[in-house]
Write a structure and sequence with these properties.
This protein is of the alpha/beta class. 62% of the residues lie in helices and 11% in strands. The strands form two sheets. It has a seven-stranded mixed sheet, sandwiched between helices. The N terminus and C terminus are likely disordered.
């Protein structure tokens, strides 16, 4: 499972590509960081001068000058840190903006089936939360880890210059430092893995509660569900607590190792001073440089958990992005579409299960077509194929005789009005919901469409009419009101083809027949594809087809309201 892979070379190549175009900015930032580090170097000889000359001689003037120099260097280092931080933030923000934008584009480029499958995965954790973790990692890497590493290298060179023998003492301790680092990194990866599993389970529980609220209440299963979700929360709490406590232990262990290294250097330095190989000022200067280097090491250690977590998030995001195949259709041809559309010998399957077999359907401009059939027969699949959201396994779709593969299918889709079984709304006004995706649509256009389909009384009942707020997911409306506004949204841009998927979910058969009749009037009448289980709804249409066992065949409706067999 990809959560077990926290460091992935391909993922890091993908990530670093966002900074390649900003190579100059990265180089300048690194130079600024290095310059900031160099400001620490003059402090070391000043410390030696203070203890080797100013203090032993009682030279107050020199001591004040040394103190003023140290203070000035510290202030300059602080100003340089602020300027460097500002540049790093701009660099990080630009890269993360591009990453977020590409993720958003990726979402819209994914086939519809991948979104259906994503509902069963911890989608929010993989995309939304992991992007925030990646953002934190970039900030920590550019703002802490990289400057600390560069400064540590500079100070390491200074330590070698001051006394190579004392550096050798520290080097002898490196195997211990390496073993502790390896152990602590493994512990952090294991802890993050357990926490992510628990967190994904928590997000899945939240989605279940929100999606099945009505079912839970109807079954009087609140207590059982609260108990089940509490168990998930307890697991998350335990994982979070273990992560925090264990990371604290890891930090203390790392600090203890650093202290042991410092102790070894102190003992060795004391021996050298006792033998007059090293002056006291030289030892204190070495420790001043070592303290500065230790501070940078602590910054690096503090950034490590964020880097590990961000790397894991990057791996998950890269796997998610890699799942996207080529676009369903890549054509770019624009046509003045008349509304004619055809399915020619179309086969379609969900995974390995065949849904449509050799389906052919030709819809003429302005023609009203009904499709009936049992649940799961594939009626909605036909609509998704017509909209270019699915691609057939075999056969082809064509508009005005031109294959979808040649066409700009998004431009074609803008000329199709779609009313799904369960219309989707956002928390905005009626007009904003109707005009979504149609920026040229005016209020006059919407009002004219409302008169055409008989929705003026509905708008008049709403407080504010077109300015009425719908609430999140249209919760301020009844089912019938949502259905009519969805139809108004589909009709207002004057589409060449109108697709109605089970409109009797919230409207009666007479209302649907009246709607179809109203749309049939006028020279700009759209073609209509109507899916319904109700034979009374599709009666009176120009053609009715029955879809069963993957095959589409003409059907006839008896006066009793039943759909009978195939026509010869």
């Amino acid at each position: 499972m990809f959560m077990d892979r926290f460091f992935d070379a391909a993922a890091w190549r993908y990530f670093l590509a966002y900074f390649q175009a900003r190579g100059a900015s990265v180089a300048i930032s690194l130079m600024a960081t290095a310059g900031q580090s160099l400001l620490a170097l003059p402090m070391i000889p000043l410390v030696r001068l203070a203890f080797d000359r100013a203090i032993p001689r009682g030279d107050i003037g020199l001591l004040i000058a040394i103190g003023s120099g140290l203070a000035t260097l510290r202030i300059c280092a602080g100003l340089a840190a602020v300027l460097t931080r500002s540049r790093v933030v701009r660099l990080k923000s630009a890269a993360m903006l591009e990453i977020r934008r590409n993720l958003l584009l990726n979402l819209y480029q994914r086939p519809l089936l991948s979104h259906v499958r994503a509902e069963t995965q911890p989608f929010m954790a993989h995309v939304v939360v992991d992007v925030e973790r990646l953002d934190a990692m970039v900030d920590s890497a550019l703002g802490s880890a990289l400057p600390a590493a560069l400064t540590g290298l500079v100070l390491g060179g200074a330590l070698l210059y001051l006394n190579a023998a004392l550096v050798l003492v520290g080097v002898v301790m490196l195997p211990l430092v390496w073993m502790v680092g390896r152990f602590t990194a493994g512990r952090m990866r294991a802890n993050f893995r357990a926490y992510h599993v628990a967190y994904d389970a928590f997000l899945g529980g939240v989605r279940f509660v929100l999606a099945n609220f009505t079912l839970t209440r109807a079954r009087a299963a609140e207590n059982a569900e609260v108990g089940r979700q509490t168990a998930t929360l307890s697991t998350l709490r335990a994982a979070a607590r273990h992560l925090a406590v264990d990371n604290a232990r890891v930090g203390q262990l790392q600090s203890a190792v650093v202290a042991m290294v410092g102790l070894a250097v102190l003992v060795a330095g004391g021996v050298l001073v006792g033998r007059h190989v090293l002056t006291l000022g030289g030892l204190l200067a070495f420790f001043a440089a070592a303290a500065l280097a230790g501070g940078q090491m602590e910054r690096l250690i503090a950034a490590l958990p964020t880097l590990v977590e961000g790397s894991a998030a990057l791996t998950r995001l890269h796997v998610y992005l890699a799942e996207v195949g080529p676009p369903i259709y890549t054509g770019a041809r624009l046509i003045d579409w008349t509304g004619r559309i055809a399915l020619e010998g179309v086969d379609f399957s969900y995974r390995e299960a065949p849904v449509l077999r050799a389906v052919s359907l030709d819809i003429s401009p302005g023609q009203r077509v009904g499709i009936v059939g049992p649940n799961g027969a594939g009626k909605t699949t036909i609509l998704n194929l017509v909209l270019g959201l699915y691609r057939p396994v075999a056969g082809r779709l064509a508009a005005d005789g031109i294959a979808f593969d040649e066409l700009d299918v998004a431009a074609l889709r803008r000329m199709i009005g779609m009313v799904p079984q369960h219309p989707v709304f956002f928390d905005g006004s009626v007009f904003e919901n109707i005009a979504y995706g149609a920026p040229d649509l005016s209020r006059a256009d919407v009002e004219a469409a409302a008169r055409r389909i008989g929705a003026t009384r509905l708008l008049a009942r709403l407080p504010g009419a077109l300015d009425a707020r719908l609430g999140e997911s249209g919760l301020m409306l009844s089912g019938g009101e949502r259905q009519m506004i969805a139809i108004l949204r589909a009709v207002a841009p004057r589409p060449r083809l109108l697709v109605l998927d089970e409109p009797t979910n919230h409207l009666d058969a007479k209302a649907v027949r009246d709607l179809v009749a109203a749309l049939a009037e006028g020279a700009d009448r759209p073609g209509i594809v109507l899916i319904s289980h109700d034979p009374a709804v599709v009666s009176g249409l120009d053609a009715v087809y029955r879809l069963e066992e993957g095959r589409l065949s003409p059907a006839v409706i008896q006066f009793a309201g039943r759909i009978t067999g195939e026509l010869a």
